[in-house]
Fold this sequence. Notes:
The complex is a heterodimer of chains A (252) and B (315).
Chain A: H1 10-38, H2 46-64, H3 70-81, H4 87-90, H5 104-131, E1 138-139, H6 149-152, E2 165-166, H7 168-178, H8 180-187, H9 195-203, H10 214-226, H11 237-242
Antiparallel strand pairs in A: 1-2
Helix pairs in contact in A: 1-5, 1-7, 2-10, 5-7
Chain B: H1 4-8, H2 12-25, H3 30-48, H4 51-65, H5 69-82, H6 87-99, H7 103-116, H8 121-133, H9 137-150, H10 155-167, H11 171-184, H12 189-202, H13 205-221, H14 226-241, H15 247-271, H16 279-292
Amino acid sequence: xxxxxxxxxxxxxxxxxxxxxxxxxxxxxxxxxxxxxxxxxxxxxxxxxxxxxxxxxxxxxxxxxxxxxxxxxxxxxxxxxxxxxxxxxxxxxxxxxxxxxxxxxxxxxxxxxxxxxxxxxxxxxxxxxxxxxxxxxxxxxxxxxxxxxxxxxxxxxxxxxxxxxxxxxxxxxxxxxxxxxxxxxxxxxxxxxxxxxxxxxxxxxxxxxxxxxxxxxxxxxxxxxxxxxxxxxxxxxxxxxxxxxxxxxxxx
Amino acid sequence: xxxxxxxxxxxxxxxxxxxxxxxxxxxxxxxxxxxxxxxxxxxxxxxxxxxxxxxxxxxxxxxxxxxxxxxxxxxxxxxxxxxxxxxxxxxxxxxxxxxxxxxxxxxxxxxxxxxxxxxxxxxxxxxxxxxxxxxxxxxxxxxxxxxxxxxxxxxxxxxxxxxxxxxxxxxxxxxxxxxxxxxxxxxxxxxxxxxxxxxxxxxxxxxxxxxxxxxxxxxxxxxxxxxxxxxxxxxxxxxxxxxxxxxxxxxxxxxxxxxxxxxxxxxxxxxxxxxxxxxxxxxxxxxxxxxxxxxxxxxxxxxxxxxxxxxxxxx
Lengths: 252, 315
């Protein structure tokens, strides 16, 4: 027999479920604007810009080198890869490993990130838990095991209550993640209210615009360029072209 | 003078949208921009909201092109009031000084920007264009080379350098710059064609062969590029006419040249479609079109005007 269905007071819906949604949403929007205010421009070093463009050029050479005459391609490949004087062999950048603790800009960034994202989440979550305590809000549509009870049913000490019934704190967390797409609609893409993206950023942090170790990038680019062979795309271009009459109709 | 909105019966939103389109296309129709933009800012500035600043910038640069110093100064002053410390506005100040030929002051402005922000590409490029305006081609080339060493990816700069080299008749280096452009934009038929023309001008059997190949490539990318078609014809016939080539090469090139000539004739016919019932005038029109030497040019040319002649190159 299925568990008896609980009938919840409909005022729970009006006074708890909806307010939590609104609170989460507005706190998110607020976070977005606060982040924009605190945002500081990152200054890029000339060398970094230059290096990233050089790497881009080398990659383009690998991909589109077949459109250049053989000699030009070899000249450029030589420029990059020559054993003594090639760019990737000769240029070694001084790598200063950025110690996260002492580097002031990174410390500031971390602090700002914590302030605008983690702190509000904890504060609001705790407040909601305190205000809306002592009753269940909603039932999740899938069955959960008993292990989830202490997590999702804060403040309700009922041993026999099905673990699918959850309290307000879990509804709050559901909202935090669920409203991401709403933020995208209203604030436009790339907004600072998107917490999960921030968490992703923190994890992949070092892989930003330019890897902090250009030497490694140079080495991998050198290897990639070594193996490329020049197969001229224009070998048979005349035959291809003259196989049919030219099309003079306007195409655009 | 009737205002633009009266002449063309457009509202201010359409004018604003037109300006945005020109901004995105990077079209340099400065007189039109000045006409439309001037009216927009004088009559409808409040309705534009935050768009007004970018329109100020656009109109100011157009005004400098048309020698409208008064308008340029007004725009600049508005921008300076709103963004007092901006590098972008400083660059505009420098541009105005350039237009007034006060090159030393302009240089000082750009140096100040670069001191503050060494990665600012706009200021560097303006300094190089000052050198070009003063006619110091050699120095401009040198500075541009240094700039490109740092910023290898700047395609505008590569194109500018190729034009400077062509003016100095240093075709080998110009070819190198165009190769960079072809590499990054393999599907742009104009770069292929320009490269082919430079190779043709350099002369020599090998270069002529290369030029023929690249003319064909340009044609393959865009069938309507008449210049490339003519180039193909010229290069093929020159190779065929050269005494040093083998018989097979000669035969091949004669075939290519004949095909190209055939296509050119077809193109003339296509451009003047005769009325179906009137075959008499058809012959007359074809003769006339052959005489008037009209060309069905492909897409618009890029900004450089490669002014060398496709005359008889040395063999």
